[in-house]
Each structure stands twice: as structure tokens, then as C-alpha cells.
Amino acid sequence: MDNYDVVVIGGGPGGYVAAIRCAQLGMKTACVEKWQDNKGKTVLGGTCLNVGCIPSKALLDSSHHFENITSHAKDHGITIENAQMDVGKMLKRKDKIVKILTMGVAGLFKKHHITLLEGTGSLKSNNEIEITSIDGKNQSVSAKSIIIATGSVPATLPPAPVDNDLIVDSTGALDFSEVPESLGVIGAGVIGLELGSVWRRLGSNVTVIEALEEFMPAADHDIASAAEKELIKQGLNIQLGAKMTACENKNGKVKVQYEQNGESHDLKVDKLIVAIGRKPNTDGLHAEQAGLKLDDRGFIETDGQCRTNLDNVYAIGDVIHGPMLAHKAMEEGVAVAELIDGQKPDFSHDNIPWVVYTWPEIAWVGKTEHQLKEEGRHIRVGNFPFMATGRARAMNETSGLIKMIGDAETDELLGVHIFGPNASELISEAVLARSFEGSTEDIARTVHAHPTLSEAMHEAALSVDGRTLHL
Ligand code: FAD
Ligand code: NAI
After folding, report:
1. Exposed site from 45, 225, 313, 467, fewest CB < 10 Å?
2. Residues 11 and 142 in one domain
């Protein structure tokens, strides 16, 4: 039996980053991965690289270009007639990006001498793993430490079973061979809004059915309300407080029935995306036989530092509590490797940024105004609209705002919430300021280049103290 210092189960962003950091720290490392591409080749990168963050952003980018050309180029004096989207080429570009990046991770494994064990990994004990290859062969390896990074899978909705033809999950929604004339989306969460936007921009008539009465309750209310208005203006038909009651295949279309305000509604669409959340994935791990504790929702229980109830067995990423985000999984991967190495890593879950890649984008870090008010905190709030910045005007990107919240007594930066162009990049300044336990005044006293979108961040900080310069 081969022996390793560390074996990581799962080669997604959590697992592959953990493996790299372990190898950097001099540990003999292996990673078990079962994901295969359509040619039967084992690929690394997990959900994020294969069917998540990267392919969805590739399609968001292509569709954003298309919408700019068809709807906004004329504002710049550019005439383009009869612009067409070749969906096949768009999908090929996306697939090529995925291939390059997953091969890149394989290259990193070679560089760091990490052994890839191909197949499904299951726990035999807290220092032995069995790997079952696709052709059913078993091998066992031993490890001083085990890191479980088996990720998550889409949650299912019994009345709307995924058939990968008319009814799809997020993976199927990345691969429509043509733009559906009409598209239904169950769930106005991150996937529903991002992938709903992709196909709307390409001409689909998109209806989003959301069970909750409130739009994006996790976001700050002002930001959610600005985003909701803008997305509706763009053409997304968002139905809140709508509960799906039945779904059937009718002559090659999907007939969805839902209830809203006590009334029954029918919706007929060419395709339906089910995007109602994701659930932790412990399939094939034999967690229970090994005595690994899961909670009642199937997440692996950890102690806040990714330690499970089994000695020397750790878990990271989507399979444990916390936001299901690639950067959270990666940071946990680094922290766990350093913990195994005997270091004292410090990774705060309070500073994980959220980004929704609609356009304009939505991004935040820290707490919302309503959370802080519920906690009884005394706060000061600043706002600044992008339309008051020169750069946003020059770009024709005037929608949205930045909202900044500081503690009323200490001025500690408690939260920053953005709806606007490039919010995904702008939020990093706020994450950094919070990581250094900074104040809104620290941002107010920082020089921001002119003309940039980041001036809205500067002005929002000035606004906390009632001294904006350009409003
Ligand atoms: P995963 O990426 O799910 O990887 C787990 C890996 O473990 C997989 O490769 C799987 O094959 C393997 N595995 C599972 N069980 C076993 C086993 N028993 N043996 C061997 N291998 C096993 N997050 C963001 O931060 N930004 C985004 O923009 C973003 N966009 C997304 C878009 C979509 C459409 C989706 C679906 C998700 C998106 N996410 C995004 C979420 C992100 O993909 C996940 O949070 C992230 O991939 C979690 O990483 P992970 O390593 O924990 O798990
Ligand atoms: P989500 O949790 O973001 O949203 C699911 C939505 O579906 C919620 O609003 C929920 O109220 C609604 N819903 C649940 N059951 C329903 C029902 N029966 N009928 C109607 N609505 C219902 O989950 P989503 O969009 O599936 O994404 C999963 C996760 O993947 C995200 O939470 C996030 O962690 C990750 N992700 C991150 C992205 C990013 O960082 N940009 C992009 C895409 C996914």
C-alpha cells in the first residue's frame, strides 16, 4: 500500500489548492478525483472549472459583448447591422477555456509532484482510503492526514425532475445548442440571475419563478432593490412569492404551474432551468461507515477550523458549512494545509466577498444595514451613485451605487455593498480594508486614481461622514 503524508479527496478549487499548499510545505501529497470529461479522461478543477464559475463567466462575457453590440454600440456612434450570435462557437470558446484551465491544474500537479489517484475515494478509516476506478478496480492508500473536499451538487425539485433535455440544472443550462425562444428558471438566486441573464441577452424570453416574497434577501435591501429594478428593466420577468405546483412535458414544451397571491398561473416554456440551491456531496465517501459526523442537512461537521470529528481528517469547501463559493473553498484549502503543517493559519469567514455576475454586477462584504440594525449596532451609512462619477459617465455605465456602513462610534468598516459596473473588482478594496480592520476614514483618506470607478468607493466613504465632494 502506498503511503502519503496527505491525501485529498476531491480536486475542485478547495481540494486542488489544498494539495498544492501541502506539496509546497514539503508533504508527500496525493489527490483522488473521479470527474471525467466527455472523452473519459479524469479532469481536475471540480464544479468551479468544469461546470461552474468559469464556464458561466465565459457565457456571461460572450452574451455581454452581444448585448453591447446589439443594444449599446449605437450610443457610441457605432452602427452594426444584423449582428448574429453563433451559439455553437460561443459554446466551443467556453469549452476551450475550461480545457485550458483544467489542463493548467494538471500541470500544477506535475510541477508540485502531486500524485493524481483516478477514481472515487472512500474512507476506510481515519488513515486509509480506498479508490475505486471507473472499471471497478480497487486500491487502498494510507495517509497521515486526509482532507475531504468533495464539494456539492445541484439540489433537486421532485415536481421538476431534470431530464437534461427540456428540464435542466445549471450544468445543462451552460450547453443549450440554440437560444430557447422562451425559458423558465426556478429560483431567483445567483445561478438563476446569472444564467437567466445569459440567455435573455441572446434573445430568450426569460421568466424567473422565486418562492420567496423578497428579492435577494441576503443582499443589502437598497442594493437588492436597485438590482431588481434594473434586471426587470433589462427584460427578466421576475415573479416573487411564486410557488411551483406542477410541471409537465406538453408537446415538446414544459408547462409549469405556479401559485402566486392565491392565484394559479400557467407558464409554457421551451426549456426550464432548476436552480434552487446546492447540497453537500458525500456520495461514495462511506462517511457513516467510517464514523464521520454529518449534520441533518448532510454537511460534514467541522469545528470552525475544518477539523472533523475523526482525528487527522479535515473537510473544506462546499461540503462543510459556510457560503458555497470557490474562493472560500480555496482559502480553507490553504488554511488546512498550514494547520497540518503545525502553523496557526488565520482565515476569517467574516471577510468573504459575494459577487453576482449580472450586469451591472452585485458585490458585497461584511454585514448589511438591516443585519446591523437587528443587532442594535449604532451605524453611519454613506451612499454614492455611479452616475456622479466621470468614468461611469464616460463608459455609459451610470446605473447603481456603492453603500458603505461604518460603526457610529469607532468608524470600523462594517459593510460595503455595491451594485454597479465592475463591482466584482471594486469590492477587493473593501475586503482589504476590512482585513486590516480599517475604518471608512481610511478609505476616505486613500488617493483613488481619476477618472476611475473606484472614485465611487472614495466618495461613498466620504459620504459616511457627510462630506462627499461630487454630489
Ligand atoms: P467542487 O468544485 O464541487 O469539487 C469537488 C470535487 O470532488 C469534484 O471534482 C468531484 O468530482 C470530486 N469528488 C466528489 N466526491 C468524490 C469522491 N468520493 N472521490 C473522488 N472525487 C470526488 N463560486 C464562486 O466563488 N464564484 C462564481 O462565480 C461561481 N459561479 C458558479 C456558477 C455555477 C453555475 C455553479 C454551479 C457554481 C458556481 N460557484 C461559484 C460555486 C463554486 O463552483 C463552488 O463553490 C466550488 O466549486 C466549491 O469548491 P469545492 O472544491 O468545495 O467543490
Ligand atoms: P441560491 O441559494 O443562490 O438560490 C436559490 C433560490 O431558489 C433562492 O432564492 C430560493 O429561495 C429559491 N428557491 C428554492 N426552492 C424553490 C422553489 N421550490 N421554487 C422557487 N424558488 C425556490 O442557489 P443557486 O442559484 O442554485 O446557486 C447555488 C450556489 O452556487 C449559490 O448559493 C452560490 O453559493 C453558488 N454560486 C455562486 C455564484 C457566484 O459566486 N457568482 C454563481 C453561481 C452559483
Report:
1. 467
2. yes
pLDDT score of 425 more than 90: yes
Residue range 51-87, pLDDT digits in tens: 999 999 999 999 999 999 999 999 999 999 999 999 9
Write down the pLDDT at residue 219: 98
Q: Is the CB of 361 under 6 A from ligand 1?
A: no
Looking at residue 279, its amino acid is K
**Is there a contact between 17 and 327 (Cβ–Cβ < 8 Å)?**
no
Do 402 and 308 fall within a single domain?
A: no
Q: Are residues 257 and 342 in the same domain?
A: no
In a domain, 93, yes or no: yes
- Do residue 10 and residue 103 come from a single domain? yes
Residue 276, SS3 per DSSP: coil
Look at ligand 2, atom 40, and give the residue with the nearest C-alpha: 355
Q: Give the pLDDT confidence score for residue 348 in this predicted structure.
A: 83
Taking all residues of the chain, what is their mean pLDDT, rounded to a whole number?
A: 97
> Cβ contacts of residue 101 below 8 Å, gap of 6+?
45, 49, 54
The SS3 of residue 361 is: strand
Ligand 2 midpoint to CA 170 (Å): 10
Do both 23 and 146 map to the same domain?
Answer: yes
CATH at 247: 3.50.50.60
Domain co-membership, 87 together with 113 = yes
The dihedrals phi and psi of 60, each to the nearest 5 degrees, come to: -60, -40
424 and 301 inside one domain: no
Q: For residue 54, which ligand has an atom nearest its CA?
A: 1
What is the total count of domains within the chain?
3
Question: pLDDT confidence of 357, banded at 50, 70, 90?
Answer: very high
Angle between helices 13-24 and 87-111 (to 10 degrees): 30
CA of 47 to the centre of ligand 1 (A): 3
Does residue 418 contact residue 427 with C-beta atoms inside 8 Å? yes
Residue 109 lies in a domain: yes
Q: Whose CA is nearest to atom 28 of ligand 2?
A: 277
How far is it, in rounded angstroms, from Cα 460 to Cα 403?
Answer: 6
Which domain covers residue 172, as residue numbers? Answer: 167-276
pTM, entire model: 0.98
pLDDT tens digits, one per residue of 200-220 = 999 999 999 999 999 999 999
CA-wise closest residue to 316 among 293, 296, 333: 333
Work out the burial of residue 39: count CB atoms within 10 Å of its CB; fewer than 13 is exposed, 13-18 middle, 19 or more buried: exposed
